[in-house]
Amino acid sequence: MTTTVKLEDSWKTALRAEFEAPYMKDLKAFLLAQRESGATLFPRGADYFRALDLTPLDKVKVVILGQDPYHGDNQAHGLCFSVQPGIRTPPSLVNIYKELHTDLDIPPARHGFLESWARQGVLLLNSVLTVERGRAASHQGKGWERFTDAVIARVNEQDRPLVFMLWGAYAQRKAGFVDASRHLVLKAAHPSPLSAYNGFFGCRHFSRANAYLVEHGLTPIDWRLPETP
């Protein structure tokens, strides 16, 4: 992975040093070796940086952090919590929709495709950007975490007020360096069925984020998804 990687221009500029760093070259070698061994990787290569391509650095308003891509067929497409059209909505996203309904009276979408959020400035970033088919967390510790730390750092450095939605202990640790004196940092339990009742439900992050954006002269996010993806 070098600076010739296909990536939205603002991110390519902001992350140039990362792409030239030895750890990214090692990560590229690991991914190539995986493919050569016959492993199936998700998402497809063109979607590794989909979250960045859809949400340029200067357009970011809200950051939502996930951990790993989905490892089942036809699920992952580069956005955390989101699945491709026609795929059953995963349990955590079902709970996100429930909170949206409670918070903003938005009925749950019939699909799990979140690109409309990304196009409005919601950076849907996983900590790890690839996974082997059927092997959850199989690409942790290979370099992606350092890269996405740099992504979060570039967002944190922006001179406009932004919103960070940190769901669960992992996301809260990963973005622990975000400057809460300049940005709104919202924390809650993870929306997974195992923890959603421990503080995710009722957190009202969506309305709180929009109120903050409006307060600072920014257009709020339309969290209502299109009826069809």
UniProtKB/TrEMBL annotation:
<dbReference type="InterPro" id="IPR018085">
    <property type="entry name" value="Ura-DNA_Glyclase_AS"/>
</dbReference>
<comment type="similarity">
    <text>Belongs to the uracil-DNA glycosylase (UDG) superfamily. UNG family.</text>
</comment>
<dbReference type="Pfam" id="PF03167">
    <property type="entry name" value="UDG"/>
</dbReference>
<dbReference type="GO" id="GO:0097510">
    <property type="term" value="P:base-excision repair, AP site formation via deaminated base removal"/>
</dbReference>
<dbReference type="GO" id="GO:0004844">
    <property type="term" value="F:uracil DNA N-glycosylase activity"/>
</dbReference>
<keyword id="KW-0227">DNA damage</keyword>
<dbReference type="GO" id="GO:0005737">
    <property type="term" value="C:cytoplasm"/>
</dbReference>
<keyword id="KW-0326">Glycosidase</keyword>
<keyword id="KW-0963">Cytoplasm</keyword>
<keyword id="KW-0378">Hydrolase</keyword>
<feature type="domain" description="Uracil-DNA glycosylase-like">
    <location>
        <begin position="53"/>
        <end position="213"/>
    </location>
</feature>
<protein>
    <recommendedName>
        <fullName>Uracil-DNA glycosylase</fullName>
        <ecNumber>3.2.2.27</ecNumber>
    </recommendedName>
</protein>
<keyword id="KW-0234">DNA repair</keyword>
<dbReference type="InterPro" id="IPR002043">
    <property type="entry name" value="UDG_fam1"/>
</dbReference>
<feature type="active site" description="Proton acceptor">
    <location>
        <position position="68"/>
    </location>
</feature>
<comment type="function">
    <text>Excises uracil residues from the DNA which can arise as a result of misincorporation of dUMP residues by DNA polymerase or due to deamination of cytosine.</text>
</comment>
<dbReference type="InterPro" id="IPR036895">
    <property type="entry name" value="Uracil-DNA_glycosylase-like_sf"/>
</dbReference>
<dbReference type="InterPro" id="IPR005122">
    <property type="entry name" value="Uracil-DNA_glycosylase-like"/>
</dbReference>
